[in-house]
TrEMBL record:
Name assigned to this protein: tRNA-(Ms[2]io[6]A)-hydroxylase
SUPFAM superfamilies in UniProt: Ferritin-like (SSF47240)
InterPro entries: Ferritin-like, Ferritin-like_SF, tRNA-Hydrxlase_MiaE
High-level lineage: Bacteria, Pseudomonadati, Bacteroidota, Flavobacteriia, Flavobacteriales
Superkingdom of the organism of origin: Bacteria
Organism from which the protein derives: Flavobacterium frigidarium
PANTHER family tied to this protein: TRNA 2-(METHYLSULFANYL)-N(6)-ISOPENTENYLADENOSINE(37) HYDROXYLASE, TRNA-(MS[2]IO[6]A)-HYDROXYLASE
Amino acid sequence: MLGLKLVTDPRWVNIVESNIEEILTDHAWCEQKAASNAISLITQNSEKEELVSELMIIAQEEIEHFKMVHDLIKERGLTFGRERKDSYVNELFKFMKKDGSRNDALCERLLFSAIIEARSCERFKVLSENIKDPTLAQFYRDLMISEAGHYTTFLAFARKYADNVDVEKRWQEWIAYETSIITNYGKQETIHG
């Protein structure tokens, strides 16, 4: 799915179901960070009109998802906890190349964003197919579709703006790296954990 080599074990949902408050809090913060990432890319690349226009839409969608998850937390009488560290994303960040041209750096950041969206989409699929709560199952199915669109947008822009980067080769390197680290995750009631 989405080019990812390893799928999440459906038993992860059993862990999630043991602490819905934790998964929803973590999920809300993931959406907030995704919105911030899109805004940061806009800020750093304001001269790229098409990128700015598309990322404004993604930023708005991500902040709307943040609100939707926050509303779910409130509706269920749960507590919206503090922001969580995302070790998975931090490990991916270490893999980003930090050299090259400004466009090379943009390309790398777009691939980084695409791999996170791909895994989030995959996790939402697992949740939508395995969680016992029908409201949450539908909620995650709807979000899965949106995340898939974000993943393809980031990947398409990486291809568009690549000057000196073989995007297909680098994308396969990102997938291989993600495969090597994802085996350490799927053991906590967090979206990437």
